[in-house]
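Lecture 7 notes. Example A: sequence first, then its structure tokens.
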Amino acid sequence: MKQRTVVMVVAALVVTAVGASVYVWRRGAGETEERAVPISSVTRGKDDATLVVRYVAGTGGCGSPLGVTAEESVTSVRLVARVRFVRGVCPLVGRAAQAEVRLASPLAGRTVIDGSTSRRLAVELSPANPPNA
């Protein structure tokens, strides 16, 4: 009776593993997709036209930071952080990524917006680079 139970448990595990593998394969595991991700913080860089942007990229093998782009208008700067993710099963732990963005003109009081969430971002002053430095 015990041997039959062991065989049934092993069979159930094999069926579950095969089913999960087929599910991941059908969902495109191993393929990559590019996504905009939320920005964690923005700090003023070496001058008023440089921003240091921090965001969470994927974990090793599951996400590669692609950088940050800026779309500028007279009244705002829209920042978009992009990451290339591998489809499939990835751990839910990210790693910090950072990019320096050079604006075409100084920030000069323009509103900074996270392009992935449309959330307004506060620009922190770097202790190493106070205003009017």
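Example B, a different protein, same format:
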Amino acid sequence: MVALTWGRKAAGSVRGVPGKTNPSGLPPRLVSWSAASSLHSTEANMAVTLSPHETRTLARAQSILERQLQDPRTPRFTCGILVRSYLQIRMAPLDHEQVHAMFLDAQHALLATEVLGIGTLTSCQVHPREIARAALRHNAHAVILAHNHPSGAAAPSAADRSVTRAVQAALQLVGMELIDHLVVTAAEVRSAGERGFL
């Protein structure tokens, strides 16, 4: 089986030392949802432990954004601020690359979000056919694809551009639209559509 790989050369480590405080006072950028929740600041390269209350608050924020995306009264994805916020809360904390897909109906309301692949620190493999299969399972009309770069480097790689085109072609074969492919980091979310890759 041939699989496409998202990846890039590993940049400098962004990891801090668990249990240390953030002496810089800079706003935290990454949030971990694990039991050993820690907050990572790319600027300070230090880790800060989150309290259980802070972890629950961030989980509630993700839940609120998810409900808004599913609400028929929410403006659809003509403006991506809501989508970007949702994906950043969902994916920025991850310490390995993952591929997520948002499946949308004909009015671009959210049907479901699914993790399609979990990779290593610098790459993740998912075949375009698996993305199309998941979209068919959710009876989706359109898909927003996203993957994270744990290194913090948001620039799409040549592999990212190639995967975007392959997924777009696979979805078109089954009458579906790839709305965008987003690269998510703690600091920003970059769009393949805005960069002309779609």
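Note on Example B: Residues 27 and 72 are 34 Å apart (CA to CA). The domain at 76-191 is CATH 3.40.140.10 (Cytidine Deaminase; domain 2).
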